[in-house]
Each structure stands twice: as C-alpha cells, then as structure tokens.
Design goal:
Order of helices and strands: HHHHHHH
Number of domains: 2
Radius of gyration: 19 Å
Number of strands: 0
Distance between the termini: 28 Å
Largest sheet: none
Structural class: mainly alpha
Shape: globular
C-alpha cells in the first residue's frame, strides 16, 4: 500500500534524478525501498533520499555544493554553506603553502596556478550556494551581488550567512536539512 508520504518521497526522488543529483541506479534502488516498505523514509535514509548527506557526513556536506554546481534554485542550510566554505579555505591554504615555500621559483608558480584553478572551479558553486543560503532566509539570491562591493561586501554577506533560515517552507522551497 502506498501512502501520501511514499508518494511525496517518490516525487522528491524523481526531482533529484531529473536534476542530476542522483544516478538512475540510486533512483531505482530508493524507489524499490519506498514501494516495498510503503512507509515514510526517516533518518539518514531520508537525508540520502532528498539529496542531503547524513548529519555526521562532514565531507558529504562540504562537497554538496559541487554536486549542485550551478543550481541557484532551492535552499541551502548553514551547514552546507559553512562546510563548503571550510573546504574551499583548506584548498586555498594548501595552494598558499606551495606559494610560500618557493615564492618566485617553479613550486611557487605551481601554487599560483593551482590557486587560480581552485578559484575558477569554485566561483560558480560558491555563488550558487550563497544564493540558496539567501533563499533559505526568504531573501532574494541577487543579494549575492553584494560580494562585489569593495572591502565591505564580503563581510556583509558572511554576516548574513550566519543568520538562521526561515522555519518551514517558504517561496523558495521546503526547509533545507
């Protein structure tokens, strides 16, 4: 017997497959579990179903914005935003260590090139996760443009990223995990 929760889970699962968040094989596996069980999916299984990593999967939260590379719709939790920010900072610090060891030599130039690649590779996901974070607060994603305000823009954006999102659903979608 399929209840309303199962139908809701199947709809979310289908959207994740259409958005490319999960593979066809993952879709079929989760669909079978829902259809066989006929009961609501809870806990870490529910997190996997809606595309969010388990609560204790720190690396999963850090790379989630990379999996949603240019997805500017929906909402992002504080955990998703800050864990991704931590991942990017660690990558940049690693590049900085190469640059510091040999500032003008070949290792330093390799560090500069690597830093440039990190910045280019994370520009779009950083912008997207910031827009989704604003959506979580019920604000327009266009506020991400504050990053371009000299000196103060990034401080204002980071200050706003600390604020809690709106409880429950809002016009941008269901509450982020």
């Amino acid at each position: 017997m399929i209840d309303n929760d199962s139908i809701s889970n199947l709809e979310r699962l289908h959207k994740l497959k259409a958005d490319g968040v999960i593979t066809e094989a993952d879709f079929e596996t989760a669909k079978q579990k829902i259809l066989e069980g006929g009961r609501p999916v809870t806990g870490s299984a529910r997190s996997a179903l809606v595309g969010a990593p388990a609560a204790d999967d720190w690396l999963g939260w850090a790379i989630l914005p990379l999996r949603k590379y240019a997805d500017f719709s929906g909402r992002a939790s504080r955990k998703e935003f800050w864990m991704f920010g931590l991942l990017v900072m660690v990558a940049m610090l690693g590049c900085g260590m190469f640059m510091a060891t040999d500032e003008y030599g070949s290792i330093g130039k390799f560090g500069q090139a690597l830093l440039g690649l990190v910045v280019l590779a994370t520009f779009v996901p950083t912008t997207a996760v910031t827009a989704r974070r604003f959506h979580d607060q019920g604000r327009s994603g266009w506020l991400t443009m504050m990053y371009v305000i000299p000196y103060l823009g990034w401080i204002i954006v980071l200050g706003l990223m600390v604020l809690e999102g709106t409880p429950g659903d809002n016009e941008f979608g269901p509450k982020a995990d």
